[in-house]
Structure prediction request, 1321 residues.
Amino acid sequence: MITDFVPLFIMILLALGLALTLLKLQQWLGPYQPGKIKGSPYESGQDPVGSARERYSIKFYLVAMIFIVFDVELVFLYPWAVSFGEFLQAGGGAALGALAVVGLFLFILVVGLIYDIKKGGLDWD
Amino acid sequence: METLVRLILLPPLLVAAFNGMMGLFMPSWRKNEWLIGGLALAAVALPFAVTCSLFFGFEEAETVRYFTWLAAGDLSVDFAYQLDELSLLMTMIVTGVGSLIHLYSIGYMHGDDGFWRFFPYLNLFIFAMLNLVLAANLPVLFLGWEGVGLCSYLLIGFWYTELKNSEAANKAFIVNRIGDFAFLLAMFMIFKTVTDAPGFTGTFGLDFATLLAPETLALFEGSTGLWIALLLFIGATGKSAQIPLFVWLPDAMAGPTPVSALIHAATMVTSGLYLLARLSAFVLLQPTAMAVIAIVGALTAIMAATVAITQNDIKKVLAYSTVSQLGYMFLAAGVGAFFVAIFHVMTHAFFKACLFLGSGSVIHSMHHVEHELEHKGLIPSHHGGHGTPHDSEATQNTLRHNPLPYDGPFDAQDMRTMGGLRKYMPSTAITFLISTLAIAGIPPLSGFFSKDEILYKAFEYGYDGHALGYVVWIIGLVTAVLTAIYMTRAYLLTFEGKPRWPGFMDVKPHESPWTMTVPLWVLAGLAVIGGFFGLAPVVAEALGTHSWIHEWLVGHGDHVGPVAELGHEVVPSHAVEWGLLGLGALLALIGVGAAWFGFRFGERGPEADRSVRKLMGVFYGPASKKWGWDEAYDAAVVKPIVEGSRKGLAPFDKGIVDGAVTGLARSVRGLAGVLRGAQTGVVQTYAAAVVLGVVIVVALMLFV
Amino acid sequence: MYDFLLADTARVLPILVVAAVGIAVILLDAFRNDSPSIPWLAGAGLVAAFVLEGFKLYDPQVAFFGQVYSGGAAAFANMVVLLGALGSVVLSVPYLKRIGHNYGEVHALILFATVGMMTLASAGSLITLFVGLETMSVCLYVLTGLVREEKGANESALKYFLLGAFSTGFFLYGIALLYGATGTMLFSEMVEGLAVTERTGIFVGGVALLLIGFLFKVSAVPFHMWTPDVYQGAPTTLTGFMSTASKAAAFAALVVVLARALPVDLVAGEVQITLSVVAAVTMVVGNVIALAQTNVKRMLAYSSIAHAGYILAGLAAGTGEGYGGALFYLLAYTVMNVGAFGVLAALEWDKEQGAIQDIESLAGSGYRQPILGVTMGVFLFALTGFPPLAGFIGKYLVFAAAVDAGLTWLAVVGVLASVVSAYYYLRILVVMWMKPETDAPEAARQPFALATSTTVVLSLCALLLLILGVMPGGVIEAAQSYFDAGAIVAGR
Prediction:
């Protein structure tokens, strides 16, 4: 029973190991010049402490939203890709249908992307 | 037959649509007064001619079906019309009197800015009224019922530039809606009762034939039937201006006078009676409802008669007189004599239309007097404010020489400014006098026969062992005397004695054009002979004939009419009948004589009101204030709802919203302000309301 | 084995058509900004979908394993929705041009909202229901805040969004409970599922929460607070759209849930009590508050609340007649309300003062614009329930159904409430036709030419109301044929 999860445990160990290794590696390999800005938690320039009522560019939201949309698209595509093999085996045009459905989904997303680009949603002035 | 019914129904509708559209979208068309009026008249005269041919060639009742209107489950209502004795008689009255009034209106409305809209409204009214009286089922009747209400609304508010008029129109519409919805509920309940009956199959269309069949009527024994009858009666009180829903009718006189004659005297207001007569077999099964109808009718009759005595506006007198006469008709219906009620509907249509048109003729010429007086500077101009004591010097001077007999501005409808008009308008005066004597009940004019028959039927009901019969009979007798007095008063104040308007030496009224006097003469003629259609049984017997209206509506021998009547076990002897006939005539003579020679309204003018006041004692005050009905409604119904909305419920909503809006106005810092304003108060309140709703719904679902 | 895919796709074709046209509109707008052909495209798509639905009016089907109902009642409701959308699209063009917001996106959003509504009205399972509901709502939130630079518009959009999200929470919780109680999302399997698990308490709780979500969407009292603000803040023609089409869709879905998902004894018991109480309160509160309004848009907002009450009275009856009557009422209501808001939109002269719509600003407009005056008269009389207009038939059917189901008191309340309503509807007419023009502000009296499209749509709406009032035969028959009275009627 528990043996079913062995690959999962290996996966977790691998991920942990990789992350820790990379962290340590960059400390060893990279140059180290600490500063006030560099010491802040978010190097992108966001101050984590301070007034919450701050103005920042609406572009953050636009880009973030589009990012989320395509992120979610991937989440959807993953299980589809995994089960596509079963559709292929089932035969009878099932795979074609599944392909058409996901194609439609991607098409709608692409239309959204085209609209966004055309309307200048991705232009950062 | 289908074509003929189309010929009756469609001309008014089509001409109304045509005239209305042309007038609305082509302002230049509005000037063609003769064309508009002529078309409109033809659209009523044609149906009248068709009805005449059907009426005189009548053999047996027929139903004409066009198509299905409403079909849902076991409900299936047809657009169906019924041609029987009752509907044909009513159609005759509607189209006949309607034609005369259309002709009259061409003269009366001449030169009015709204001439072009007046006739479409009037035609539309005729169409709706024809729907009402010809309908073969309740929903189609209801269609007409609502339609006449709408037209009445449009016509009362015809001169809408005065706020008072559009208020009167709204009042009429809304009060009528109360009655209408009682009617609607009655229909629902009838439908439910019939379709829920064991063994019911197929569909039911609320048609009279099925509804009034004995086996259907048997379903309505018990309290359901009583409720339905009472709801129908409430509907009838709304349309026919009975206590407690009569308050709209006196105000409805704000409309043009031909409208008052046609809609608010001759036709629409009698549709409540028509409904009861149509369903007479149904209503007869409910003795309690019958008693309520009789009592309400009697009380309305006497209440309105006392008010009529105290009024100075000639149209108000006629309005209260109409309410009172309608009360008579309900009294008749309540004692089971539906055919007499319809008989009185007919005679009343003749003499009351004549009286209203006569008053219109008077008002018409008094308006000319008013204009001339304004022109000569004898009274303050219409536009320059009203006749307050601070008016110009010149006005003060002339008024000192010849003041108005009352405080306030000149009013072309006030009888106190009239007097002596017979000299100037002989046709109007004579026809008005004939109709006055007819409504007073002087034999052998039409009012004598119909009113006497009502009183006799009430007496007969009492004689048969119902004490209520005697009570309403006595009320009816008193009302008869009052009627004779107030109508004679109106005639005398208007046409006899000395002229009382300022400057009567120079300014003379004149007789109206032929388009107006011809209808007056025709109606007066009908008011004279109309009574012979319904001779009292003893008179008919003495003459070797029979009461035509009874035979026509109720039946005689093999012929069974559409109207049911209450049978009596004990009937008074002929001697008593003759005696009652004499009593009726005597009371009418006493009333007319009292007004003419007792109070002497002719010579004394409005002065004579003092004697009336003395005679009526404590009743005069409340009666002149119309018994406080309007005030009572205001305090009991209108204020609570409107104020409740304005002060109770709306602030709850509005305060929040207004708060948000003013809050917005203060914080002009853009979206941030909106967000803060929204977050700190408003949306939370809304959400709180939602939570409250959630609690209610969950509680109802889980714990009830 | 997967042949069903093609057949089922055909069954939801109208929805797909609207969605495809929506996407096409977005693409067109991307390449040719605010192209004038967009409304034409949108209109054509809606007409095509309308015709396609028309073919399925008497052909009820189930698609995608019961997730979606197609044809029959769904087709009827979808046609109502499409009618509302079509009217709004046509009326919006001149209006949006006048207020300077004639964006192509508006039409795309209307189309996507319509897709949501159609999905909602065709839903066969709780998931489809929810997806439809959210698709519709999100589009409507955006449409409400269309006039970005107006504070009022922002406020209404935000309020709508926040409260909408709040009510969605209840809706979702209800779905979760129902799933927990029955183990299925499909309407058709719920009663069986409940019989297996016998978790009646959880089930009833779930139904209660689901009802709350619906009652919010149809703005029944006390879930109505957002309605006046949102209707006032949104662009007028779009108010017409969301006050009709979204209500029609939500009501149609509620009817389907009541008729197909819930056990008969519940519908005739607790649900009937709840719905009749809510209906009574809604009719009274909506009509009475409307009396005190001086702003016509707010007045119509409260009137639309009251109309939701009338429709709920039909649903409370819980009979085939009641559901059919409600469907017919939705049709009549959609036509008259789209028309009434269309007239108001045509009378707005700009987006600032003119958009306020104080009742006095309409003074004398009847004579200035006879078409608007006459059609508004028809719409208002229809809203009052005046025969022979369609509004009367609708009221007749729902109240008769209520009386038939033994809810006479509810019919009495409704009938009296609609007497009150005559008062404020008449007031609008009185102002339009009977007040002198001089009572209106100077700017309102400027003459303007009425767009031909507006004239045509308003006249057609008025004509349709008259036709539906005089010859509603087939339409009522269709509406009442969907819910077999015998199967649903309980406690009778």
In short: Helices of chain A lie at 6-29, 58-90, 94-118. Chain A has one domain: 2-47+55-118. Residues 26 and 78 of chain A are 31 Å apart (CA to CA).
